[in-house]
Amino acid sequence: MEAEAIDGWLGNRKLPEGRTVEAFQRAVKHQLIKDFQWDAERVEAAGIDLLQLLADEIGWGLEGDAGLLFASFYRLDLGEQLMREILSHHERPEAAQMLAQKSLERAALKVWMRWTFEEVISPGKDSQ
C-alpha cells in the first residue's frame, strides 16, 4: 500500500538520473523511520504496511503522549496549521489516517527535494 501511495505522490515528478522508484520508496521509508525515531529493524520485522504503521503510531500518540508525536511531525516539517485543521475537523481514527497519509507525502517530498537538489549541485553523481 505504501508503494502505491508513494508512487501516487510521485505522479509526474521525475526522479534524478540514476535513481529508481524502488530506491525512492526505500529512502522515503528510511526518512519516516528517522523522523518518527523508530527502530529500523523492528519496522522491517513487523511486516506491516508502512501507512498502517504510521496511522497506528499516530493514533496511539494522540491517545497517549502527544508530545513525542508532535516532535515527529516537527522533524517531518508537517506544518502546525495542517495538523490543527485535520485534528479539529475529523474524529481521531480518521485524523490519524489523514495525518499518516500527509506524513508519507511529506517524507516523499523531503526525499525528492534532497535528491533533486543533489542532482543540481552535483550532476551525474550516483549516490543511491
Protein architecture, described:
This protein has helices spanning 2-10, 21-35, 40-46, 50-63, 66-76, 80-89, 92-121. It has 128 residues and is mainly alpha-helical. It has one domain. Helix 1 crosses helix 7 and helix 4 (50-63) crosses helix 5 (66-76). The protein is globular, with a radius of gyration of 15 Å. It starts with a helix and ends in a 7-residue tail after the last helix.
Q: How would you summarize what this structure contains?
A:
With 128 residues, this protein is mainly α. It is built from seven helices and no strands.
Give the arrangement of secondary structure elements.
Blueprint: H1 2-10, H2 21-35, H3 40-46, H4 50-63, H5 66-76, H6 80-89, H7 92-121
Helix pairs in contact: 1-7, 2-7, 4-5, 4-7, 6-7
* Cα-based radius of gyration, to the nearest Å: 15 Å
Main beta sheet strand tally, sense and closure: none
Tally of contiguous helical segments: 7
Report the average pLDDT across residues: 90
Search tags:
mainly alpha
